[in-house]
Known about the structure:
The protein is an alpha+beta fold. The protein has three domains: 144 residues, Beta-Lactamase (2-Layer Sandwich); 88 residues, Helix Hairpins (Orthogonal Bundle), CATH 1.10.287.130; 141 residues, 2-Layer Sandwich (Heat Shock Protein 90), CATH 3.30.565.10. 56% of the residues lie in helices and 18% in strands. It is rod-shaped and about 150 Å long.
Amino acid sequence: MMKFKSLTLRIWFIISVIIFTIVFIISLAFTFIIKHNDEDKATHSLHLTHQLVLNSLTQNQFNKEIIGFVNHQGTYHFVFDKQNKQITFITGNEKKSDNPLMIKMGDLITNNDHQSLKETINDQPYLIEISHITDQSFLISYLPLDNKQNLLQVIMIGILVILLSLPLSKVIANNIAKPLKQLEGYTKRIANKEWDHDLDLKSEDEIGRLAKAMKEMKDALKLADEEEKKFLQSISHDLKTPVMVIMSYAQAIIDGMYEDSAEESASIIKNEAVRLEKKIKQVLYLNTLDYVLDNDKEREDVYLDKLLTYLIANFQAVNPDLSWILNIESKPAVLLGNPDRIRVSIENILENQLRYAQNIIQVSLKDSGSSWMIEIRNDGPLISEKDLNQIFKSLYKGDKGNFGLGLSISHKIVNFYHGNIKVENRNGQVCFTICYPKK
């Protein structure tokens, strides 16, 4: 099977082969039809002239008009004496050089009845009619069949059609391959992150839909590239600050230039190191979360009512000045998943609430038909409309945000377990709602 590196050549070759096959089949069909029609016409013409000559001979009315008509039809007629094998020319069309041929036709006489034959003599097909005149004399009429000329005409027409179709098929191939070449160039520009270049394909067919999908892919990649740059810039800034503080205080201790005591400086260094460690852990956790979730095949029962009770008790110990209200309306509330991941998704929301709440944090667990609904509210400042739309994006921080990773991690985990998470300002409070599907 032939292989082409160029799609245009491949399409052109396929179209050419199809056209050639069609022309070949049609040529064969026409050759058969023309041959059949020509043979029918020749048979009719031979039979007509044979009867005319036969009647003229038997009635002694043979004249120049009849000879002219017979000659015009292109048929040949002679009288053959079977006993003496003598040939008598009638119309004047016959040639003496054809005597051996005529003798072979005379040898075909089998009886005194009328014979209609199709015979091949010396590789030439003939239509032959033989009629009895007297005891040993017969009228033999014949007409050579020449199909080669018709076949040659059909072949020439077929070749002409094929030759004319070659440039046409090339135009069609170029027309099909042109948008694909545009898509190829567009893909290379996307690979090189040339986001400003656009693709001008307005067709509504499969190629047009592919172009539209590639545009959507470009927009998604562009957004991901921008978010990656923001991520790196934010990480660089967040890591740079504690590192600078640690280095400054450490150098001050080494040089003996610090104002506070060594213990206070060491405590600051430790706090910054803890903050730095937490940041690094969250970054690593977020970057590996997709892989961990996809490859975490072990699922078990997670009791949300018990988990919420445990988490509220822990956070209450962290900040006992806040009023924690837990309302569990239905138990047991069971879902199927990884307990550690589910815990992190709720814990991050509670940490966020802890930073913004002024006096009260309310947590409720409700039965919402096919899912369990967790609502976490606080009486802190409301979230602006701008922040509501972006709060679950990686590294997006509000006014008192820590690292901008916790809510993004919660969002990924909840979505992985086919749940949903949202935040809204409701009745003067900030309300986070998490829905997990029931077991």
